Amino acid sequence: MKAGSGHAPKASAGSAFHGSITRGTTNPNRLRRVDNWMRATLGGLLRRAPDPLVVDLGYGASPVTTVELRARLGVRVIGLEIDPERVASAQPFADPPELEFRRGGFELAGLRPTLVRAFNVLRQYDESEVDGAWAAMTATGAILVEGTCDELGRIASWVTVSPEGPQTLTLAARLSTLDAPATLAERLPKSLIHHNVPGEPVHAFLSTLDNAWRDAAPLSTFGPRQRWRRAVEATKAAGWPVLDRPARWRLGELTVRYAAVAP
User: Fold this and answer.
1) Cα–Cα distance for residue pair 60/158, rounded to 1 Å
2) Which of 139, 29, 18, 28 lies closest to 80, judged by CA?
3) What is the pLDDT of residue 1?
4) Is 70 exceeded by the pLDDT of residue 22?
5) Is-contact 112 142, C-beta < 8 A?
6) Confidence bin at 28 (pLDDT 50/70/90)
7) How high is the pLDDT of residue 21?
8) What is the 3-state secondary structure (H, E, C) of the chain?
9) Could you count the other beta carbons within 10 Å of the beta carbon of residue 27?
10) Is the peptide bond before 198 cis (omega within 30 degrees of 0)?
């Protein structure tokens, strides 16, 4: 699946804002896993940018995760929402120019960010709309981190998308509460969640990881981090293009090339 082959979802006829209002539910620290990953993995991209800007698209009914994003990345952040009431209610949390809240959708309100975070946004759309949304959010050269997580941020997954299309898939979990990697299938990004069926690459990938986790059960004596690391090592040994290193694995993460799991 390659960004650019679809059409960006649009709001009501005549609207300049592309997208739909999300449910808006959120919790403090819900997005800490993806935020910390972006800081570690994409921090160099932000440091090299002459005027780094991060857009947080669809922050929801509360701006708390946008405020946290600004604190974790330490660069200018603008939160965008289609719902004008949500934008208005976020203003007391603004700290211009370092933290602002504006109205906007997939067109990014005409901004030219270095990085875009769009979490728990595309989950409500049809899969056919994903490519267009990706293309709209990366049209000016931004790198997009798009994904989903559970209500408390214990399990999450995200796709990193460049203007050329999706590049990587990352899975992340709180290992102390993870029963099995198969649980992560519940929170796959929209582009993959309906393809977690036998015969599809993402299903084969998750099955390999799940089997490796089961085989590593004896290491539970030494803690879930050791078990997860062994499972990731076995998944990599099975031929899956794992991109990150043990330092990230111990955090409950695993990143692979998107092409290997693409429908």
Assistant:
1) 18
2) 18
3) 31
4) no
5) yes
6) confident
7) 54
8) CCCCCCCCCCCCCCCCCCCCCCCCCCCCCCCHHHHHHHHHHHHHHHHHCCCCEEEEECCCCCCHHHHHHHHHHCCEEEEEECCHHHHHHHHHHCECCCEEEEECCCCHHHCCCCEEEEECCHHHCCHHHHHHHHHHHCCCCCEEEEEEECCCCCEEEEEEEECCEEEEEEEEECHHHCCCHHHHHHHCCHHHHCCCCCCCHHHHHHHHHHHHHHHCHHHHHHCHHHHHHHHHHHHHHCCCCECCCHHHHCCCEEEEEHHHCCC
9) 15
10) no
10 vs 216: which has the higher pLDDT = 216
Among candidates 141, 240, 139, 145, which has minimal Cα distance to 189? 145
| Overall average pLDDT of the 120-148 stretch | 96
Structural domains in the chain plus CATH codes: 32-174+241-260 (3.40.50.150)
- Average pLDDT over the chain reads 92
What pLDDT score was predicted for residue 16? Answer: 55
The residues, ordered by sequence, that sit 6+ positions from 254 with a Cβ below 8 Å of its Cβ are 170, 171, 172, 209, 232, 235, 242, 244, 248
Note whether 181 and 152 are within 8 A (CB).
no
pTM score of the predicted model: 0.91
Structure tokens at 6: 């679809």
Distance CA 82, CA 80 (A): 7
> Could you read off the pLDDT of 154-198 as tens digits, one per residue?
999 999 999 999 999 999 999 999 999 999 999 999 999 999 999
